[in-house]
Every structure is written in C-alpha cells, then in structure tokens.
Amino acid sequence: MVLSHPWLLWLLPLAALPLLLQRTHVKHYSWVDMLPKDSLSDLLGLILKILALLTLVFIILGLAAPHTTERKIERTGVGAQIALVLDRSASMDDPFSGTANATGSSTVGETKSVAAARLITDFVKSRQQDMFGMITFSNSAMYVLPLSENKKAIIAAVQATGGNALFQTNIGSGLTSSAALFDKVPDSGSRAVILLSDGAGRMDANTQQKVKDWFDRLHISLYWIVLRQPDGLSIFDPNFKPVEDQPLPAEIELYEFFKTLKTPFKAYEAEDPKSLQLAMNDINNREKKPITYLEKIPGHDYSNVCFIIAAMMIALLLGVKHLEVKTWH
C-alpha cells in the first residue's frame, strides 16, 4: 500500500480534537451534583467522540489517496513482439493501382501510404496479445514508439504517417533503429520486423553487418513487403539478368542480402491494396506462436473506500444527534 500524497498524514493529529474538546451546551446549570451518575450516557459520549475521531482519520487518509502498486503477472498466450518499419519516402504518396480492397469497395485514388496505414491498423486491431513498436524512415529513421501493449497509441501513430515525406529511402537506418527497439526488452519468444516500402535503398557493408549481427543476436525475423508498380522490377523474376559491369538494382541487391540473414526472412510483393491485404494476412497467420508476456495489473485506489466509511460515520453521528434529548426550558 502506498500513498499519492503522504505529506497529508501530518494532519492526523488533528483527528484527536474530538477527544480534547468538551461539548458546549446551549444552556448552563449552576449545580447538577444531585443528579445520579449516568454511565451509559458517558459511554455513548465516548463512543461518539471516537466516531468523530475515526471520521477525521478516514477523511485525511482518503485525501492522501492510498492505493496498491501496479503488478505484473506472467501469462502465456499467442502473439509476438512486432516492430513496424514504414517507408515515408515521397513515392509512398503515389496512388496504388487496382480498384478493390478486401471488402470489395472501390479504392481508386488511394495512395500507398493511406492503404498501408489502413491495413496495418486492421492488423494491429486483430492482434490482441502483441507488443508493437514503430519506426518510419525516408532520408533517415524517425523513432516513433517503443515496444508497447498500448494499441491506441500504435494505431494513432500509424494513422499519422501521412505527413510530408522526402525523396530518399534509407532502409538501413530504418532497420538498425527497429532492431534497437528490441534491445533491453525481455524476449517473449517471438520477434519480428515488418518492413514496408515501395523501393529499396543501398546499404554499405558496415550497415549490412550491423543489421545481420543485431537481428541474429536479438532473434528477430524479417518480413519485407514491397509495394511495386505492375510494370516495375520484380524481386522474384526468375528471368532477370543483370546488366554486365553494372551493379544490381537496389531491390535485387537488398533481397539477396536479406536472404543471407541467419534469422527467418520472407518477402512479399504487393501491386494493389488487395495483394497488400493478402501479405498482411499471411504474416498474421505466421506470427501466432506461443509466447510469454507480462500482463500489467493496475493498482487499486482506496480513496473512495475511505470517503465512504467517513460518510457512513457522519451519517451515524447525525442520526444520534437527532435522537439526542433536547435541553428543557
């Protein structure tokens, strides 16, 4: 049991005032020694003083706001610790091709970023026991949220990703920042990064090694969803032949690097909201492993209990006052 305002306990000595003060009557009598001693009245008078004392004690305790501390209970459930890494380069504001989403309604004019935010929001809502963190990136990574069980916070963050963007795609910075989200966080048994971008940036050798080491040390799986144009380069094209004496396209180079990771990796390509929905559904089905997690049990506030007890005692005092024999004229 702890108190939010422990300094108010200094007022507790004031609760003794009913014991120290004598009751004053509206009339005074010159001599009452001939009256027999009334032990019952004396006992009732003492009880009433004690009730008044306890009333003041409970009022002061209620003002001090007693409560229990938050508890954490280890539970076993199904879910994962998931870091969302969202591309916020300017090309994400281009419209998707295709006209239908999962519900069959028209999405003509829906941009990639809006479609991604809508589907990721549905994904987060469907995951009851997951922890989510979030990183966005364009020319550099932007830390948005740590791994948290607060679904409202992550949904608000996802829906706020539609701001102004820059004409760069620094995937390396986004991935290293996402791995840092898992550092110093107890491993639940299932960890994943969902990287969503409509292109690829090149990573130097140092960044590649850092990503590989961190993902291996922290046991992080990687899901890469590529939002591509129908006529764009496919990372799954078996007939692709690199131009001689030319570097591999950034998408192919990044895909080949991801396949060298020691932890699980899977890539998807989405050309419209429907295929993006299918990719999110597949990730949702894959990341349903037994995990251990800590459920936070909030502390219980006892302020109202103290005030209710004080109110009951005040009501009792008022009732006794009403039954008091009136002084005769």
What can you tell me about this protein's structure?
By secondary structure, the protein is α/β, with parallel strands linked by helices. The chain has 2 domains: 2-22 and 39-69 and 299-323, no CATH class; 72-295, Rossmann fold. It has helices spanning 17-20, 39-63, 112-126, 151-159, 171-182, 205-217, 250-258, 273-286, 303-323; strands spanning 2-3, 66-67, 71-79, 81-87, 131-137, 141-148, 191-197, 221-227, 265-270, 289-297. The chain has a 6-stranded mixed beta sheet with strand order 6-5-4-7-8-9, with helices on both faces. β8, α7 and β9 (265-270) form a beta-alpha-beta unit. The radius of gyration is 34 Å and the shape is rod-shaped. The model has no long low-confidence stretch (mean pLDDT 81).
Number of structurally distinct domains: 2
How many DSSP-defined strands?
A: 10
Strand content: 15-25%
Largest sheet: 6 strands, mixed
Q: Ranges with pLDDT <50 over ≥5 residues?
A: none
Number of helices: 9
Helix content: 25-40%
Query: Any guess at the CATH architecture of the largest domain?
Result: 3-Layer(aba) Sandwich
The CATH superfamily of the largest domain bears the name von Willebrand factor, type A domain
Name the helix and strand elements from N-terminus to C-terminus, one letter apiece. Answer: EHHEEEHEEHHEHEHEHEH
Q: Mean of residue pLDDT? A: 81
Remind me, CATH topology of the largest domain?
Answer: Rossmann fold
